[in-house]
Prior knowledge:
The chain has helices spanning 7-11, 25-28; strands at 40-56, 59-60, 68-81, 84-91, 95-99, 112-129, 132-149, 159-185, 189-198, 201-215, 218-219, 232-241, 244-252, 258-267, 274-279, 289-294, 300-310, 315-324, 342-354, 357-368, 371-377, 380-401. It is 2% helix and 63% strand.
Amino acid sequence: GLYEASARGNALGGTLVGSTKDASAVYYNPANMTEMTNVSVMVGGTMVWLYSDVTVDRRSERNMNPGIFCIPSFYVTTPVWGDLHFGLGTYCENGLGTKYGTDWTLAGDTVETTLMQFTLNPNLAYRITDWWSVAAGLKMSYITFNNKKRPYHGAPGGYDLMSELDGDDISMGYNFGTTFRLFESQDFGRLNLGVVYRSQIKHNIKGDFDINGTVMGFPYQSVPGAYPADTHSDASARLTLPQSLTAGLNWDSPNEKWHAGFATTWTQWSSVDTISFKIPARTPTGARSSFDLPLEWDDVWRFSVGLEYDVTDDLSLRCGYVYDMDPSSSERGTTMLPGGHRNIIGLGAGYYIWRSLRLDLGYNLVKMDSGERDITVNSVRHAFGTRNSYSHMLAASLSYTF
């Protein structure tokens, strides 16, 4: 799951559900689009670098270091008529990847994996009263998946193979949001409650499967009983992206200098119980093949707090903290995704560099708990462990209000 939707939101731990005050409301809570009275635009991105030390059967292995990923975002909001507002956003809710190397012990499970999902999200918001707004939107989800591995690596038989499975898909979902002002006074300031629901999205990823190499020194396709006999075929995989429910509180001080937020998200990761792969390649017997990747993930929670201080009318300083629970099972798993609860610290600043043009910068340090899980490769069970797992995230956003 990716929650890095803007530089300001990253620094504040995503605690912009009850009040957002910029165009990224399309992501955090589209009901907050009614806070703005003019056209507002935001464009930005987050650079992510991941790293982890890896052990197999408690022995050090090649480290996991897939390089740098970029998570882009773009938002625009505008009043339409009266209390009706429209907003459009594109951002990423799922993705990133892992990379180990071709010679590590569990190369039969994963050598390199990349998954990236992009959401195009139009929304309408309506202010029912001065203290209550609602919104609804459609989510068009585009997903790409690529996996490389060495089938039967380490098994007897002289296998030296490399396979690649990749594909993409477009599917649809929806979201609802609401914002409710709990109170506002000169002595205590303003407190808002926001709630956002995001639906499941069921993807049927379609693409290609390729395999090549040698078995005992002979070309793979010439070996009797090779699986599959074709070195290239169509392939597909069914993957359900989970539904989630987010609630948050946002407080503004009476002097409008201090801003604090709290948010929590429940995500139904149990819907990602199994990924079903189908590879309808021709085998020597003429049969078609498929396999299931059991995950048995759990539903989890994500908790975050954020604090923002307006030093001047132009300069704001921010900080935040997130505790993000790991949904994966210790009994079943895949090296495509290291496990472990995540602790995230965020820092950031915003500055109006010209009139209504604001630059936001943010940095997040993600520390993932050490963990170990069972991985079965070539019918042999291994203990796959990760430690010293962390990510550095640098984000920048430019926003302009007309």
